[in-house]
């Protein structure tokens, strides 16, 4: 039996912001398990998305838990605001400019679960000291900054490593992948041990997000059987 079931997390930045309520409702009715919310500051990554006020608006449009992914240089400065805006989970990058340990503490103090992420060029060993404190490990499968990029299969050894460490150490974190997930790459990702699947383009770029979510789930299940 799987320790953590497969969960599909449509990425809001791929939704139609002119019709956000309708798109988010389609994802929710279509069986999404959570919504992935990408925060970019134009400094940690070369793109800018939005801040806590928009996250609060997103929260008002859905019952799904919000999985907030901070691609920002100074997560500590903003963790309380994103928590207050309605985040259920907050994930930040080990490569950010803030110290990891106090940032994890801030997330827990603000009643959210805590995730830590690695960019493609960062080895998973960068997370080693924090494993017992994590609810989620996010292995980036593209260079963070933009949706619609190509999945990097060479990140799968990191997913396998995260799964092996969890087994050995009895840790509780789940394993998330983000970037380029579609009906083909989801099979590779779940076989390596990924459980939380971020999917932007493949869900909101589909004419019917519910169908996209169902197909992703079917591919994940059949790849594991
Ligand atoms: C990339 C973001 C991803 C992105 C995924 O920096 O973190 O969440 O939205 O989009 P797709 O699924 O289109 O690769
Ligand atoms: Zn993301």
Distinctive features:
binds zinc ion
Written overview of the protein:
By secondary structure, the protein is of the alpha/beta class. It has a single domain (7-224), classed as Aldolase class I (TIM Barrel), CATH 3.20.20. It is 36% helix and 19% strand. The protein is built from eight helices and eight strands; from the N terminus they run βαβαβαβαββαβαβαα. The chain has helices at 20-29, 52-60, 75-85, 100-109, 156-169, 185-192, 201-204, 209-224; strands spanning 7-10, 35-40, 66-71, 87-93, 113-118, 136-140, 174-178, 196-199. Strands 1-8-7-6-5-4-3-2 form an eight-stranded parallel sheet. β4, α4 (100-109) and β5 (113-118) form a beta-alpha-beta unit. α6 crosses α8 (209-224). The protein is globular, with a radius of gyration of 16 Å. The model has no long low-confidence stretch (mean pLDDT 97). Bound molecules: D-xylitol-5-phosphate (DX5) and zinc ion. Zinc ion binds at residues 11, 36, 38, 69, 178, 198.
Percent of residues in helices: 25-40%
Domain count, please report it: 1
Largest beta sheet: strand ordering:
1-8-7-6-5-4-3-2
Largest sheet: 8 strands, parallel
**How confident overall, as mean pLDDT?**
97
> Which residues sit in consecutive blocks of at least 5 with pLDDT less than 50?
none
From the coordinates shown, what is the CATH architecture? Alpha-Beta Barrel
Structural class: alpha/beta
CATH class: Alpha Beta
The CATH topology corresponds to TIM Barrel
Number of helices: 8
Secondary-structure element string: EHEHEHEHEEHEHEHH
Name of the CATH homologous superfamily: Aldolase class I
Distance between the termini: 11 Å
Query: What characteristic shape results from the CA principal axes?
Result: globular
